[in-house]
Amino acid sequence: MAATLVKIRNLSKIYPTGEGGFLALSDLDLDISTGEFMGIVGPSGSGKTTLLNIIGTLDEQTGGDIEVLGKQVNTLSAKESAALRAEKIGFIFQTYNLLPVYNVYENVELPLLLLKMSKAKRKELVMQALEWVGLVDKMKSRPNQLSGGQGQRVSIARAMVKTPKLVLADEPTANLDTENSLHILDTMKKINKDTGTTFVFSTHDQKVVKYLNRVITLIDGKKAKDDLQTGI
Fold this sequence. Notes:
32% of the residues lie in helices and 28% in strands. By secondary structure, the protein is an alpha/beta fold. The protein has a single domain (35-60, 77-228), classed as Rossmann fold, CATH 3.40.50.300. The strands form two sheets. A six-stranded mixed beta sheet has the order 6-7-8-3-9-10. Strands 2-1-4-5 form a four-stranded antiparallel beta sheet, covered by helices on one side. The two termini are 19 Å apart.
């Protein structure tokens, strides 16, 4: 039986507003196991991105408990949260967030510069990540020389370069056409199978949903469904 990677109990998140507060998440319970390829779906405003950000320690819960990779995140200092993200969590965003002054190799290498690692080891890991996404031949190109699909593949390589335990992907296909979306999804699915890395998506995209082994549906900040999809 797979180990529990994320454990959430009675999670709530309230954003302050002029009228007292917006309830983004309410009394949410959720377990995520090692090696899952799963997603969070629901209408706009349902709390998908908020949940992803709290799991990734980019945002703080208002109430409840959340344990990520064995750490009670609400007890972590800012420095400890940053270390957890740097060492064990990868992020993929819909806007790629590549630095235009760096080439592909340098963009992928960037997360490793935060870790104590030799230049030779960094090179080994960067080349491995670029091989995973099929972009070794583009390693000297700058972001403005890439297609949208290639840019997103670089962001996947950057997320995977440290071989994280958990990857959080927020609408990773939102800016891509169907062909590139399917290529990206095939790439991530293969990495999931090859490395055992857990992937958690926030998405509206039905193309993504079809790839997932488990789908959590949020409505008004509450878990409405938790569906397993077999045969994928």
